[in-house]
Structure formats: C-alpha cells, structure tokens
Specification:
2 strands; two-stranded antiparallel sheet; Na+/H+ antiporter like fold; single chain; mainly alpha; globular
C-alpha cells in the first residue's frame, strides 16, 4: 500500500509526459506538413506577425514566434525550476546517493555530444552551435519508454526523469553563460534586487500570488531588456516559491475531523442538496486543503498540464516548420554533425561514463537495470527536440539557413535515436523474458 502511494504520483507524471510526447510529435508533423504545403506562406506570416505596444520611453514589440520562445517558454522554464527545486529538496535528487547515478549519466550525455560536434565542425560560422546537441527532451523520451510499458523497469524511467532534470540544469547554465547578448548591468541589478526580496519572503514562508505575478512580469521584462534571455527569469523565479506548507499535517487532520463533524450535524432531510452550513464547511475544507499544499506543489500541479498539453505543442508548431525548398538552402554538414552528435555522442557518453563509474564504484545502479538498459536509454538521451531547437534558435539567431539546417538535424537525429533506443530496449525485454519466463 505504501509502495503504491509512493509510486502513483511518479507514474502519473510519466503518463502525462508520455501523452505530451505524442502530442508533441503530432504538432511537429503538422508544422512540417504545413511549412511544405501550398499554404506555407500563411505559416510564415502567422509566426512573424508582430504584437506588442510602443510608447515614447518603452517598447515591447515582437513577432508572435518570439512571444512564444521568450514568453510562453519562460513558463516552461518556470516549471522546470519548480521541478528542480522539489527534486533537490524532497525528491529523487535530495541526497548524494540518489543524485550520483543520473548526474554521471547527464555529464556524459552533455559532454560527449558537445565533443563530437566540436571535433566534426570545421565551419567557424556554425561553431557557436556546440550547445545544441546537449539537451534531452523528457516528454519524447518518456513517450518511447511508455510504449514499452511494463517491459522496462520503473527504476529506468526514474533514472531518465532525474537524468533529464540534471541535463536541463546544464542546458540552462549554458544558455545563461554562452547564449545571452550584451548585458545592461543596471537593469540586471534591479532584477536581482527584486529577486533578492522574493527569496527573503520565501525564506520567511510568505507567498502572495498576485504580488508574485507582478514581480515576475517586471523581472521578465528587465531580463528581456538587459540582454539575458528572459526565459531564465522563469528558472530564478521558481526558486523563490516556498516549498513549506502553511499548516502542519497534524493541524490539517484535526481541522478535517472538525469539518467532518460539522458536516454531519448540519445534514438536512434532502439528500440531494446541501444546507448553507454544509456549503460553508466545504468552502472551509477547500481553503484548508489549499493551505495544506505548499505553494510550490500547487503551482507545479496547476502548470504541468498547461505546459505539457498547450505550451510545448505550440512551441513545436511554431518552431518545427522547416521548408525543405527554402530559398536560402540547407547546410548538410551542419545537419549531419548534429545528427551524429545526438546519436553517437549520447550513446558513447552516457554508456561509457555510467559503466566506468559503476566499475569504479562511484555509483550504484539498481539491480533491475542491466547494461542493455543503459545502452537503450543512452540512445533515448539523443532525443533533443524542445531544448535543442530552443538553443539552436539562440545560437544561429538571424542565420535562417543554419537555423533550418539545425532543426532538420535535430529532428532526424532525435527520430533515429528514438527508433534505435526503442528496439534495443524491446530486444532486451524479449531476451530477458525468455531467460526468466513467468
């Protein structure tokens, strides 16, 4: 019973991410078809349509695609920040023992793809794209694992989740350090001063959602104007959300018992309707349930479906539409380099670093995960869709040929990685079932 209570939220998370992966695939295919159809001009016009406002002293006027990449994706990064904070405080990364396995895997999965890209690339115009192949798309990767169902152990899915979170931290640091523009220090200092106030309030357990929203918008605008990519504001804001509950479990249970007694004593003859007293007690229950759940948990729970089923598919629809007959042509060297970096880099990096670390007794791998599992997941780590395309748009900003070529390389490399990883894990499941028949 306890085991079921522990695993059910994790399994629900995996299911949501898996469904998001399939929706992401659908949005990607739709974008590709649309961008190469007779209505491709409509596709381009929609995403390049400018929205915003301008005054004498201030201007925010951007194409729709940048509102998505800079605005909606800030919410995506905010959710990542919430997940990172929770995992490090109370989740799968809250101890050195737990974090060691996914940490070494993520290090291999980031370093080796970058190394492969740097070794293959000879064009100085595309040298800045080294950060593109280092990120894993958790939604797509978990979708592949979910297709395999019970033929892969839950511990392997937990490893992939934790791996992707560590991987996201690395990608965020790379974006902050290497893919931000010229900095406006004064604006940046103001943003960090506001963040400092929010961190202080969080330390004191204070969280006012409307104040938080206003501060969040101000910080996002300051980041936008300061030269640091505004999506990073989402990560930093997430760390200011308190994780502690407003009331203790003991107090909540005691009040729950009081509400239950009041509901019984306020019962009426009509069984199909509630009395005013019962409605009042139900409102109290909702209020106390909100207080019992931490602000971080509330936000993560409310945002997860929106990000998984709305924001990420919209991002895919806006960014994955590459025209194969574009006037500026394609850079096939860049395409091949990114494909090899995603496929070969992750396979060599994750497998080698994990198995060597196990041999040196730096990490302990769960007993139900074998070497073939590690190899299969190393290929799934090469599925770099969302974050990879996002980094490509920053690395090759203004260079349409390189951006489109990078997107094709990412899509092809991710697809091949997914297929290879799937069949390796499927083969392993069939092999082990023959060795250990039920």
């Amino acid at each position: 019973m306890i085991k079921k209570a522990i695993f059910s939220p994790i399994q629900k998370y995996i299911k949501i991410e898996s469904l998001s992966g399939f929706l992401l695939l659908g949005a990607t295919l739709l974008a590709l078809i649309w961008a190469n159809s007779p209505w491709s001009h409509v596709y381009q016009e929609i995403w390049n349509y400018k929205l915003g406002f301008t005054s004498e002293s201030f201007e925010v006027n951007k194409p729709l695609i940048l509102w998505i990449n800079d605005g909606l994706m800030a919410i995506f990064f905010f959710l990542i920040g919430l997940e990172i904070k929770r995992e490090f405080l109370i989740g799968e990364l809250n101890s050195a023992k737990k974090v060691a396995f996914p940490l070494v895997g993520a290090i291999g999965g980031m370093a080796f793809p970058v190394l492969v890209y740097v070794l293959l690339n000879e064009d100085p115009n595309t040298a800045h794209g080294w950060g593109v192949p280092m990120a894993t798309d958790i939604a797509f990767a978990l979708a592949v694992l979910n297709v395999l169902g019970n033929r892969v152990p839950l511990s392997l899915k937990l490893f992939l989740m934790a791996f992707a979170i560590v991987d996201d931290i690395g990608a965020v640091l790379v974006i902050a350090i290497f893919y931000s523009g010229n900095l406006e220090i004064n604006l940046l200092l103001i943003a960090f001063a506001i963040l400092a106030v929010m961190y202080f309030l969080s330390h004191k357990g204070l969280y006012l959602k409307y104040t938080f929203l206003i501060f969040g918008i101000v910080i996002w605008v300051l980041f936008l104007k300061s030269g640091i990519h505004p999506t990073l504001a989402g990560i930093l804001l997430a760390f200011s959300v308190p994780i502690q509950q407003n009331i203790s479990t003991k107090s909540f249970i005691e009040y729950l018992e009081t509400i239950t007694k009041n509901l019984k004593s306020a019962s009426v003859l009509q069984k199909s309707i509630l009395s005013k007293e019962q409605i009042y007690e139900i409102d109290n229950l909702q209020t106390w349930a909100t207080k019992y759940q931490s602000p971080l948990q509330q936000l993560e729970h409310r945002l997860h479906d929106w990000v998984a089923f709305v924001i990420i598919p919209i991002f895919a629809l806006a960014n994955a539409g590459v025209s194969f007959n574009s006037g500026h042509g394609l850079d096939w060297d860049l395409i091949i380099h990114l494909m090899l970096s995603l496929i070969v880099g992750n396979f060599i990096g994750v497998t080698t670093v994990v198995l060597v670390s196990q041999k040196l007794k730096i990490i302990t791998i769960p007993a139900d995960i074998n070497k073939t599992h590690i190899v299969g997941v190393s290929f799934l780590a090469g599925i770099g869709f969302t974050m990879a395309i996002f980094i490509a748009s920053l690395a090759f900003e203004g260079d349409l040929k390189s951006v489109d070529s990078a997107k094709i390389g990412i899509l092809m490399g991710s697809a091949i990685s997914a297929v290879i990883g799937y069949f390796i894990l499927l083969y392993n499941a069939k092999r082990t079932s023959k060795v250990n028949p039920v």
